[in-house]
Amino acid sequence: MANYASEINKRRTFAIISHPDAGKTTLTEKFLLYGGAINLAGSVKGKATARHAVSDWMEIEKERGISVTSSVLQFNYDNYCINILDTPGHQDFSEDTYRTLMAADSAVMVIDASKGVEAQTRKLFKVCVMRKIPIFTFINKLDRDANDTFELLDEIEKELGIATCPINWPIGCGKNFKGVYDRETQTVVTYSDTEKGTKEGETSIIPIGDEDAILAHIGEENKNHLMDEIELLDGASAEFDLEAVQSGDLTPVFFGSALTNFGVEIFLQHFLKMTTTPLPRKSDKGLIDPVEEEFSAFVFKIQANMNKAHRDRIAFMRICSGKFDANMEVKHVQGNKVMRLSQPQQIMASERKILDEAYAGDIIGVFDPGIFSIGDTISMPKAGFKYEGIPTFAPEHFARVRQIDTMKRKQFVKGITQIAQEGAIQIFQEFNTGLEEIIVGVVGVLQFDVLKYRLENEYNVEIRLERLPYEHIRWIENKEEINVDKITGTSDMKKVKDMKGNPLLLFVNPWSVGMTLDRNPGLELSEFGKNT
Ligand code: G4P
Predict the structure, then answer these.
(1) Domain that holds residue 354
(2) Are residue 383 and residue 402 in the same domain, yes or no?
């Protein structure tokens, strides 16, 4: 076994997903605090500032009002080397958010206890399920009024279709929040509203059998209620089963309050034991083992023009096997070229650090002179395999795009095609006509602004965007067997093709998708494109 096996086995690489405002940033900050990577104690009052420092991207992007990058945070905790992939929220939501999940080995899902499962969580969750990666649930904000705990679990099970196994259980909520009950050790970890910036505050751990201490800390009513709930829970919830967790069929659930540091370290400790070391990854030669195989990686994201002065692009790679050494020669498989990766960097939020070595599980960014595409494989020159591509994710917003100055047709097509190649947008044409009409599809609406801005600034082309009402796109799985001209849909259906000529269908309403399937027996539709 390679002598760097211990380095790889220390790695835990996960993404944090949530609906905006559920507390993802706060939880991430607290993780970093435990890992000693940042010192929050002094910066709590200016949380807004602290947050920018940790999770936002570079100044240049802020000036442009564009923040399309997910950042990667690495820190050590308890002999683990942890890589957190932050997924951008709100309007920054884009296809990159989904792609980030392709580079993670597990996901932490943060849910606001008073809101339950929300739209963005649902979307990101689908991608985790597709990859069958382990999902861990942290139900946050118990220091505020929360929904009924059983109802929250029920909602996760029903809406997301995953079994839940609470590892701990909240006692009260809001002003009456008393702590959590740990099911395995049958102890109560008491809550005290600590100084917000410091580590976990004054808590005691009391065995549930210690009647006097329990009553003193949580009171009789809470105790009785807790005992009733535990009885119900023991009868109703799924048994803990690590295999089911690791295959993504069961989510361990934890409760806490990231803001007041309660339950965060408990979560981290359990999570690190249950989550996986870097996972093997599928290639055309079978699964590639992270420890047995020499260096290999795949590109999951390309960030264009981060430095305006240099017009450079950064290709983000997830190392899937072996050890990366900055001086070694590697092969860009798709380009069939042996090369040295230029200026390998570790991207730490707003900081970039040039690095000499990295291991399977780590994410590196390298300077890209315009040769890499999303999904490309980098390996040792003689390795001879290619990783499975990254799917194309369904855009949900569409617009017809025209250049204002008709003389600039050439620049327009060049610009929009290049931007589409980077994966920021997807472009389509009318099914039966040529290039005159370009339809752009994006996962997050901010990408329309990015497109407009970049075409104007980088290609000197002004455009007009006319939003279209479509929200649902489907790839035709069995396009070889189906005569696309003959597909009859609802009146709100539109046939388009992508740049490779693959036919796709656009719909305004979700029910039209079902109706079209009913009307065209044998038609198979998919929400993800195979990207071949
Ligand atoms: P996000 O990254 O998922 O979008 O959420 P973020 O951590 O930014 O948290 C959103 C808001 O929720 C923040 O308040 C944050 O302080 C608050 N919050 C996070 N965790 C908890 C918790 O456990 N309990 C309570 N009560 N609040 C929590 P804000 O007022 O929007 O931001 P700020 O002004 O505090 O920066």
Answers:
(1) 281-390
(2) no
Contact of 257 with 177, CB cutoff 8 Å? yes
Cα(521) to ligand 1 centroid in Å equals 49
Q: Which pLDDT belongs to residue 183?
A: 94
Q: Is the CB of 144 under 6 A from ligand 1?
A: yes
346-364 as b/e: b if 16+ CB within 10 A: bbebbeeeebeebbbbbbb
Residue 91 covered by a domain: no
Among 390, 423, 449, residue at a domain's last position: 390
Q: What is the pLDDT of residue 143?
A: 95
% the chain with pLDDT above 90 = 55
**Greater model confidence, 197 or 120:** 120
DSSP character at residue 355: -
Instruction: Give residues with Cβ within 8 angstroms of 142, minimum separation 6.
Output: 113, 170, 173, 177, 255, 256, 257, 262, 263
Place of tokens 């305004």: 508
Contact 403 CB / ligand 1 (< 6 Å):
no
- CATH code (residue 188): 3.40.50.300
More confident residue, 355 or 408: 408
What would the pLDDT profile of 465-488 be if each residue is shown by its tens digit?
Answer: 999 999 999 999 998 888 988 999
- Pocket-testing residue among 25, 26, 266, ligand 1, by greatest number of atoms within 8 A of Cβ: 26
Q: In this predicted model, what pLDDT tens digit does every residue of 8-53 receive, in sequence order? A: 999 999 999 999 899 988 898 888 888 766 544 333 323 333 334 3
21 C-beta closer than 6 A to ligand 1: yes
Whether the CB of 259 sits within 6 Å of ligand 1: yes
Classify residue 227: in a domain, yes or no. Answer: yes
Number of domains in the chain: 3
pLDDT band at 369 (very low <50, low <70, confident <90, very high): confident
Whether residue 170 sits in one domain with residue 152: yes
Give the per-residue pLDDT at 519: 95
Q: pLDDT tens, 193-240?
A: 654 555 555 678 999 999 999 999 999 999 999 999 999 998 887 889
Q: Note whether residue 79 is domain-resident.
A: no
Report the greatest alpha carbon distance in the chain.
84
Nearest to 126 by CA among 100, 103, 98, 104: 98
Q: Give 238 Cα–ligand 1 centroid separation in angstroms.
A: 31
Does 257 sit in the ligand 1 pocket, CB within 6 Å? Answer: yes
- Looking at the structure, tell me whether residues 446 and 359 fall in a common domain: no
Last residue of a domain, one of 274, 295, 318: 274
The reply to whether 62 and 210 lie within a common domain is yes
Specify the CATH number for the domain of residue 434.
3.30.70.3280
123 lines ligand 1 (CB under 6 A): no
Burial of 74 per CB tally in 10 Å (0-12, 13-18, 19+): buried
